[in-house]
Design goal:
The protein contains 20 helices and 15 strands. The protein is of the alpha/beta class.
Amino acid sequence: MAERFFNTSGPVVPAKHYSIPPLERFDLDEVLRLIRDERYFVLHAPRQTGKTSALLALRDLLNEGNEYRCVYANVEAAQTARGDVGAGIRTVLAEISEQALVVPGDDFLDEMWEGALARAGPHGALRLALGRWSQNDVRPLVLFLDELDALVGDTLISVLRQLRTGYANRPEAFPQSVILCGIRDVRDYRIHSESAGEIIAGGSAFNIKAESLRLGDLDEADVRALLRQHTNETGQEFTEGALATVWSLSQGQPWLVNALAYQACFKNRAARDRSRTIDEEAVMEAREELILGRQTHLHQLTDKLREERVRRVVEPVLSGGSGSGAGPDDVEYVRDLGLLARHGPRRIANPIYREVIPRELMYAREDSILQETEWYVKPDGGLDVEGLLAAFQRFFREHSEHWLERFQYKEAGPQLLLQAFLQRVVNGGGRIEREYALGSRRTDLLIVWPPGRFGGASEPAEPARRYVVECKILRGSLEATIREGLERTLDYMDRCGGESGHLVIFDRGGSRPWEEKIFRREESLGGRAVTVWGA
């Protein structure tokens, strides 16, 4: 039997992949109750969270008995039809018909759907076909429509309204239960109807929704259980630090957990020797490889940053602003995308996304920053952080105005520009870790230099040097901002073991000349020194 591995693409196949049983990922009793009670409801979660795996497992469970016949269909292919309802409904019906053949003996829809399209037209064919199909078998029909929110415009409106029209005829002459699955809750659909020339809310087009269930992330016990499967089958151990780091970096986001583990255990050549233990530094190396590789999952996620309603939510988190410009619907939408933590204060969902978001926002600009790593490496191998920040001051004075003017995320622009400048240099030998949150009025950066290396028992990891850089926007008096910043910088140094601390204060006011904004001075608090930089 082939060795199982950590899955990062497509549904889970337990015979091939390490996995947490999909039906344990949600409240199965609640889902079965909703189906039994003839409810239509929504299951949503961010991309690559395990929605499809859960639906397929539920389909198989329902079809094991003789109480229901259940069909799963992914209707994403109809996205390209956009406002062409005829082409869209034809694609949806063809996909449902094809998937119905998976249920033995259920070929009725395959034989009649084209006739339904000819008889009722695109705006009635789905309702007619599902009604006749439901009547053809004494067992109630349960239908799962995956990736429904990928549909666009009038095609999506037509699907929702035809399901709503047939709803009253369930279960004898329409599906007993329908699960709509996607990234967003149906209430968040904002559908542009070309025929009506207006925006249609998903909630109004599908007001028969009984519940909205969200598939959650893995908890820490799940993450450890998943990694333990690899140890049990191969003998390769994870250190306690590695297990904790996978959880800390991913916060249980399923794709991130699997991607980190796959990178550390399978892509890393040294780790393919199963006698080698996976340690914390191996996981951190895997993290950096995922980020630098701009994996599809990460790229798709950050592509959403261009949406204005996403910017209104995310920008204040990056800048430490108040976030008062974003409404609750926008916040909930960004949470549903997976960019924000599901519960608690508004913050980026996990440390990897915290790294990816600023890098993606500044990706093009970072490449145009003409700085080389070797310019800032000291003879002893350390990083010349003071020289690096002095160079940033000159760069910021020369380029910030015309760079930030064209930038969508203007409020967070100075902090992001500093991060891009540092990243351009540090990429050559280290890494940057970031902390920021809504209302904090600061961004905490930790430069780890060098990042260490993967080592076994005879090759210990190289100690890393840590430098703290805290960014603050000047609000009120300079001296008050510095006093507050010193406390935060020293606190962060204590938490992460920084050997030096630097406080960068951005003056966004237009009245003061650059000669006053740009400065460097040494400050201390409690006998501990911090270098303060004005920009």
